[in-house]
Amino acid sequence: IKECAVLLTCNRAEVYVVGDNTEWVLRDFVKYMKVPERVIEINTNDKCIEHLLRVASGLESMIVGEDQILGQVKEYYNLNKKLGGIKEILDVVFLKAIQVGKKVRRLTKINKGCVSIGSAAVELVERYLGTLMGKKVLIIGAGEMGSLIARALAHKNCSLYITNRTFSRAERLASGIEGSVAVKFGKIKEYIELCDIVFSATSSRKYIITKNLIEKVMKNRQGKLVIVDLAVPRDVEDKV
Fold it and tell me: What is the DSSP string of 46-106?
């Protein structure tokens, strides 16, 4: 392998390589990383370049045309170059992808009125409940997705609570969102009982919200509880 770049976003992990026997190397790598076959897609040569152009243009996103992905492609281009993975070939490919992503948005307006996954989730709940005004909302996870959700809720006139395993991250996010409060991760049960809506978006490999937890919660509260799971892998147990 002569060149290598990694691209990580909310719902994707991609590896771009230049060299000999690249498909064999990648299949060996995903096997070593214990990635299930059903989630693997390998593209070579022109198909690989076409895929990156589609990614940068927002055509491979959950929300078609979303702008965030273009920023992420730029961020990982700079990071991979700094780490020495990107050289002559991938440099041309990634710079072209960034250029194409901008051009597609300019010529097609594909991102006009477009939203992030976080704001789409908030809009979905708003449609279901009618209004979020006066509601109590808990965000579990203060990472990239949690930040998107918090920003989408910032002007909804609701009471916002943010929790994270590392409390300082919850505090940092809450400090930038007026009227929001950071709460300790160990108090999740207490705040789910208090809130009307829960958005969960952590990077945990284990369930955060289990059937057992929700059974206990529902014994101590009245009214609907809306739970939205935006984590990959999921935060909420199927049985919930």
Answer: HHHHHHHHHHHHTTTSSSTT-SHHHHHHHHHHHHHHHTT---HHHHHHHHHHHHHHHHHHH
Integer Cα distance of 166 and 164 in angstroms: 5
Distance CA 200, CA 55 (A): 25
Handedness of CA 228, 51, 54, 72 (dihedral sign): positive
- Answer for the pair 66, 152: CB distance below 8 angstroms, yes or no: no
pTM of the model: 0.69
Contact between 49 and 35 (Cβ < 8 Å): no
Please list the active-site residues.
Answer: 10
140: β partners? 163, 200
What does the pLDDT look like over 100-132, one tens digit per residue?
999 999 999 888 765 678 888 999 999 999 899
CA distance 67 to 116: 8
**How far is 45 from 43, CA to CA, in rounded Å?**
7
Query: CB atoms < 10 A from the CB of 238, how many?
Result: 7
Measuring CA to CA, how many Å separate 4 from each of 8, 172, 234? 13, 33, 29
For residue 113, the model assigns a pLDDT of 67
Cβ-based neighbours of 45, under 8 Å, separated by 6 or more: none
